[in-house]
Amino acid sequence: MADLEKNRPQAEEPAPPKVKARKLKDFSDGTRATRITLNVVSVVCAVILWLVLSSSSSLNTFLASPAQVWEALQEEIASNGRYFKDLSISLQRVMIGFGTGFICAIPVAFLMGWYPKVRNLLEPWIQFLRTIPPLAMIPLVILAAGLTEKAKYIIIFIASFLVVVVTVYQGIRQVDLTLVKAAYTFGARDMNLFLDVMVPEAFPYILVGARLAVASSLTTLIAAEMTGTIYGLGARIQLAQQYMNTSVVLLGIITIGVIGYILDKILLLLEARLTRWK
Amino acid sequence: MAKKLIEISHVNKTYRDKTRGDTVALDDVSLDIFENEFVCVVGPSGCGKTTLLNIIAGLERFDSGSVSMNGAPVVGPGPDRGVIFQQYALFPWMTVKKNIEYGMKYKKVRRPAGEIDPKTNAPREKTEYTKLTKEEKRALSEKYIKMVNLQGFENAYPKQLSGGMKQRVAIARGYAVAPDVLLMDEPFGALDAQTRAQLQEDLLVTWQEEKKTCFFITHDVEEAVLLATKIVIMSARPGKVMEIVDVNLPYPRNQATKLLPEFVEMKNRIWNTVYQMYLEVRK
Ligand SMILES: Nc1ncnc2c1ncn2[C@@H]1O[C@H](COP(=O)(O)OP(=O)(O)OP(=O)(O)O)[C@@H](O)[C@H]1O
Ligand SMILES: [Mg+2]
User: Ligand 1: which residue has its CA nearest to atom 1?
Assistant: First the structure.
């Protein structure tokens, strides 16, 4: 045994693995200047790509060029065409549907988060309804309310209500109980507690809920406007499609994107403003 | 004879847990707290100190026995008992000043008949209890911010403060509410030695000024002897009151008091009692 050990050829000591010196990654968001430059570059590249694609003969049958879309917009502005009526009607539907859904959802979410009885009564329903895409309810709502404005409000209401309830309810469950107890020792009652502790504590969740609800409202809005409606961006896109008016189709789509983007930015700004203590 | 403020008699508390089995946290605990006392509670970890404090605060239910404050049974939390939580419990969305003023938001104070009512500028017809005005709250918060040496940080948010500063805000808030008794759960537990010594001195000065009744939990026997007029030693599993020691060290007390032979002698005696219990629990 010992012999064997002795006779084994002496292995050379391997060199320790090389450790490459590595610079720490920059975790910041970059300077304002580089951020804006990159954003602008990104937009310019996208427009160039759009230009190139829309000039290819196989794509230009349905893809209008940027110039055509711009022209269509100019035309609408010059003739005071129906574009603005569609836009304002769609916005009105989103605002009313989303607004009422949001306002009704907050107290329901608070009651569910705070009172176990309410939670156990409502939770199965909320969870069940949440899994149904609001689009699936459009036919039912139309049967109930007809092809009216009310039907659109109801559908958007349902879409945003459910999203906000579920999100804000999560927020309430996360509230720091020590703060609740502290407020109690200062003499706060349940009603005070909601405004003093729950709303600020759940505030980030309320904003996330609002952003998700805006996205969901827009989806539902367009789908609702595509069934038996004359006005609204969704109806306009569909009409333009029937007339093969590709530039108006694209104008409508881009408008919807811009609305969603602006609403989201407003909510983000609000968040930055109101949660500076974070 | 001082007035009896809190009466705890034969309180039992068991935490029930199906998987882990039941834990007897308090076993027949009786304790009286008189006005102007500074009661320190020491005892091994897990002996039920926090449970006892929460029961007095009305933040925890108990199985049997009775707890009363000013003669009325304790059924829930109330502004007559201020709590200074170990985790500070500052509202992160409020500045230092707002945190302190929030403590006084629902407090009502007695306005005797004849006093000028600032709203009507006429003397009050009868004695009333009303909320504090904005100016009163501001004045009080300024006073206590000064007391805990936080001038210049009135408009800072809790996240901008160090642990010791947060604790000082919590203490200022506790005092500003002016409850009949202050309940403190290891308020200096998470602090470094220097900050701790500083806050102990602040607390001593404040207590010597206001003689505010305090119920103070600590695991540091030296701290207990320095601050207390009465020390409650609790034993573990089940949590019982083992011994109550009166601390008759002279005032004014400060860090130098720790060098007095009586201080050292008392500290060692209590420390040994607690350590013996610790060894017994380990067995
Ligand atoms: N919510 C709870 N559920 C179940 N058991 C609990 C609960 N809170 C405390 N206990 C148990 O009750 C006993 C007393 O706990 P308590 O927190 O009052 O101790 P303590 O004296 O404050 O300890 P420490 O000095 O470590 O803070 C412990 O054995 C603990 O395990
Ligand atoms: Mg404890």
Answer: B15
Our answer on whether the CB atom of B50 is closer than 6 Å to any ligand 1 atom is yes
- CATH fold for the domain made of A66-274: MetI-like fold (1.10.3720)
Does B57 contact A185 at a Cβ distance shorter than 8 Å?
A: yes
Task: Give distance in angstroms: CA of B47 to centre of ligand 1.
Answer: 7
What confidence score (pLDDT) does residue A2 get? Answer: 54
Q: Mean of the per-residue pLDDT values for chain A?
A: 89
Least-confidence region, from A6-20, A57-71, A113-127, B82-96: A6-20
What is the dihedral sign for C-alpha B81, B86, B88, B89?
negative
Assess B151–A contact: CB distance below 8 Å, yes or no: no
Centroid of ligand 2 to alpha carbon of B250 (angstroms): 29
Considering only CB atoms, which chain B residues are within 8 Å of A205?
A: none
Q: How far is the C-alpha of B108 from the C-alpha of B114, rounded, in Å?
A: 18
Lookup: tokens for B190: 């998470």
With a 6 Å cutoff on the Cβ, whether B14 touches ligand 1 is: no
Right CATH for B1-80+181-283 from 3.20.20.80, 2.50.20.10, 1.10.3720.10, 3.40.50.300: 3.40.50.300
ipTM: 0.86
Using a cut of 0.90, tell me whether the model's pTM lies above it: no
Show the tokens assigned to B278.
């610790």
Band of the pLDDT at A41, cuts 50, 70, 90?
very high
Mean pLDDT by 10 residues, chain B (283 residues): 88 90 90 94 90 94 93 90 90 94 89 80 83 89 88 93 90 90 89 83 87 92 94 88 91 89 94 86 73
Q: Can you tell me the distance from the alpha carbon of B74 to that of B76, in angstroms, rounded to the nearest whole number? A: 6
**Taking a C-beta distance cutoff of 8 angstroms, is the pair B252, B207 a contact?**
no
Name the residue of B42, B45, B47 to mutate for ligand 1: max ligand atoms within 8 A of Cβ.
Answer: B47
Cα separation, A155 vs A150, in Å, equals 9
Which residue, by CA, sits nearest to atom 30 of ligand 1?
B46
Domain ranges, ordered by start, for chain A = 66-274
